[in-house]
Amino acid sequence: MSMLNVNNFYKHGYDEWSLPEEIRTILWGAIYTEEWSDHSVYKSIPSWSINTDITTPPKQDREYNREYEKAKSASSLDVVPQVYIDSIKQLFDNAYYSKWFRETCGFDYELRFIDLWNGSDELTYHWDGVEDHDLGFLIYLTDEPNWKEEYGSVLKIAEREWPDDKVYNENTIMPSDGKVILLNNMNPRFVHSVGQLKDNTKNRYTLNVGISVWN
């Protein structure tokens, strides 16, 4: 039975898997039925997204406020369609993850937020753990089975000595269709960056999920 690459998750800060086909089909069906709107930062967002042009202004105009970001993220669970909540629970309850987190570690878990967007803004290396979640899912759904670096929107995961800015052990991950990245946000040494979408004819949907665990 395949399961989470425990060593990679704790040594390099992430695990890489592919969506089970049943969940992938359900999520694509949900994406096709969304009402998408243009956005000043992302290519487009669904009608229920918490990342409106008001709540997510261009990066040069942003002022980070932890409590505001936590409250904004938590509010997503009040508006996100149930299909996404059900799909994430089904994914995290899959033996691939539950064999480690539930059976071995004895963790319970709670969803902290779910968001969805198309495209990507450029984000330099950062740690998401300050926003009150231990695990972060990045689930990619794209029109391209083999995403090319020239399209942009490439994810990079690396390590750094806190609080230095210099990173090392950098890993480059293409957001191919159905790819699931689980980020270890419990350790501030693990950071990630995202490139901007360069080819606006491509769709790169990201389902972003925060989960807290405890035992």
Structural account:
There is one protein chain. With 215 residues, the protein is α+β, with helices and mostly antiparallel strands. It has helices at 6-11, 21-33, 66-75, 82-92, 95-104; strands spanning 14-18, 36-38, 44-46, 108-118, 123-126, 135-142, 155-160, 167-173, 179-184, 190-194, 204-214. The two termini are 24 Å apart.
Which helices and strands occur, and which strands form pairs?
Blueprint: H1 6-11, E1 14-18, H2 21-33, E2 36-38, E3 44-46, H3 66-75, H4 82-92, H5 95-104, E4 108-118, E5 123-126, E6 135-142, E7 155-160, E8 167-173, E9 179-184, E10 190-194, E11 204-214
Antiparallel strand pairs: 1-9, 2-3, 4-11, 5-10, 6-9, 6-11, 7-8, 7-10
Rg for CA atoms: 16 Å
Number of domains: 1
Mean pLDDT: 91
* Annotation field: number of helices: 5
Concise overview:
The protein has 215 residues and is of the alpha+beta class.
Describe this protein with a few key phrases.
single chain, 215 residues, alpha+beta, Jelly Rolls, 5-stranded antiparallel β-sheet, 4-stranded antiparallel β-sheet, 32% strand
